[in-house]
Amino acid sequence: MAGEALxxxxxxxxxFYRRVRLPLLGAMPVNQMALAAFALLGFVNPGxxxxxxxxxxxxxxxxxxxxxxxxxxxxxxxxARQRGWEAGVQRAFAQLPPTAQLRYQALVxxxxxILGITTSVGQTGMLSDLRAGTLNQLLWLFLxxxxxxxxxxxxxxxxxxxxxEADVARLEQRLAGAGEGSPLxxxxxxxxxxxxxxxxxxxxxxANLAVVEAELERIEQQVRLIEEESAVAGGPDxxxxxxxxxxxxxxxxxxxxxQHAEFFRSLGGEEEVAPMALPRLPELPPTPAATPPPxxxxxxxx
Length: 302
Fold this sequence. Notes:
2% strand; single chain
C-alpha cells in the first residue's frame, strides 16, 4: 500500500463522513444526521433545504481547510497503511517453513541489537523503533526474498527435469514420423512447444534461485557488518552513514525483484504488500556513560 498524497477532495470526503464521539452514544455521523433533519424539515418549508445546503457547504469548507484536520486525516491514513503492511508481513512470515522463519527472526534480532533495543524472540513483524526506517526496509526485502526462495524450491521439487527431457525426445520422434501439416503433427508440435517452455522455465528458476540465495547472504553479511561497526565505533553518525550506504543495495535488489515479479507470480506468489515510507534514522545525542554508584558509607559506632 504505497502512500499517495491526499487531495483537497479527499479531505472534503473525510469531513463529510466524519463521526463525532458523543457521551453515552459513541461515535455518531452528526453531519449526515443534520442533513437528514434538514431534508425532512424541507418538506414543511423548502427554505430549510437551502439553509441545510448552505450550512453543509460552510461546514465542509471550514473543516477540510483546517490544517489540524488535514494532519489528523493523514495520520489516520498512515496508521491504516501501517496496519495493512504489518498484516502483510505477518502473512508472508506465516507461510515460510520453520527454518526460514528462524533465519528471518535471527536477522530481526541483529537489527534490534544494532539500534540497542530489545525484541521478543518470537517477534515476526518489523521493528517498532522510529529509528528503524532503513533496517525495516531491509527486513521487508529479506522477507520477500525468503518467500521467493520457497516458491522456487517448491516448483523445482514438483518438476522432474529428466522426465521432461525424455518427453521432449519422445515428442520429437513422434513428430518426425507424423505427416507434415496433418492434425496429428500440429497437435504434437503444440505439445512439444509446451514441454520445451517448461524446460526453459526450469532453467530460469534455477538461475533466479542462485540470485536469490546470493542476495539473502549479502543482506545477512551487511547486517553483521553494521552490527560489528556499531559495536566498535558506536554513535548515531556512524550508524546513519552505514545505513545510508545500504540504500543502494535496497534499490538494486528491489529493482531486480520488480523486474522478475511476473516470474514469481507465475509460481503462485501472492500480491506484494508495498512497504510504507518509514522515517530515516535521526541524529541522536550520544548516550552518556553510566556513573558508578557512590560507595556505601561506613557505619559509625555509637
